[in-house]
Amino acid sequence: MLSTLTDKLTALADPEKAAFLQGFFKTGKGQYAEGDIFLGIKVPEIRAAIKEYHGMTLPDIKGLLYSGLHEVRLAGFLLLVALFKKATTENERREIYDFYIAHAKQANNWDLVDLSCKDIIGAYLAGKKDRRILYQLAGSSSLWEQRIAIVSTWAFIKRGDFDDTLRIAEKLLAHKHDLIHKATGWMLREVGKKDKKVLAAFLQRHAAIMPRTALRYSLEHFLPEEKRQYMAMKMTHTKNEAQ
User: Fold this and answer.
1) Residue 20 falls within a domain, yes or no?
2) What are the CA-CA distances from residue 218 to residues 94, 199, 237 (Å)?
3) CA dist., res. 120 & res. 76, Å (int)
4) Please, which residues have CB within 8 angstroms of residue 206's CB and are 6 or more apart in sequence?
5) Per-residue pLDDT reduced to its tens digit, 147-202
């Protein structure tokens, strides 16, 4: 079954699209996804291709996750999400959650993270009090584990639960990579869509020191004059730092 799906995906390869994706996902020397290989398949095509494989076992999915082909790994994570959503018992959910944590290093690009972690890690922890794993991931040396930490909190935000998002965002404010800035700003924006006052209070405390990208992402649904106010806080702080 594993080789059949890999062959099916390989047959969908589009060299021209692959060349574009190699650049878009920064696979060059010294870049965040150095050496990753793309087939050039769109996500909807991957979703369609894996429909008949939703009965895959965890060992089969593991084989996909360790493929050298980006879209094959993505197929594995999407199948893992499907398996988690079909799970009917706590033991099944826990097994899939543990499996994800054990192989999280294979979610080694932002699309792999964003299309899987919130629906497994976030969904599993949403009903749990113990969420220490997210803080461990946020403190990891891995860019991808750090992104998993903040993006997984989307599952909490949907339930009106913002505390972990805000705390992890605070931990990541000094991060130097724009992929963390974007993810943090994105999750803060989601908080604001649920409760603008909560986000506004966070920005009053942190806007001046936030990375510009994170701040801009978080402000997407604010009024123009509100955006100017928070960006002015950032600009003033930057000028003072330069003096």
Assistant:
1) yes
2) 32, 8, 18
3) 13
4) 170, 173
5) 999 999 999 999 999 999 999 999 999 999 999 999 999 999 999 999 999 999 99
Is the model's pLDDT at 243 over the cut of 60?
A: no
Per-residue pLDDT, averaged over 110-119, amounts to: 98
Give the range among 22-26, 60-64, 234-238 with minimum mean pLDDT.
Answer: 234-238
* Residue 7 located in a structural domain: yes
List alpha helices for 152-223, DSSP H.
Answer: 154-157, 163-172, 178-194, 196-206, 212-218
232 in any annotated domain: no
pLDDT score for 235: 80
User: Model confidence at 241, in pLDDT bands (50, 70, 90)?
Assistant: low
Here the CATH number for the domain that contains residue 70 is 1.25.10.90
Alpha carbon separation from 114 to 29, 70, 148, 187 (Å, rounded): 24, 14, 8, 11
- Domains contained in the chain, number: 1
Contact 77, 115 (CB under 8 A): yes
User: Has residue 33 been placed in a domain?
Assistant: yes
Phi, psi (rounded to 5 degrees) for 69: -100, 125
Q: Which domain holds residue 106?
A: 1-112
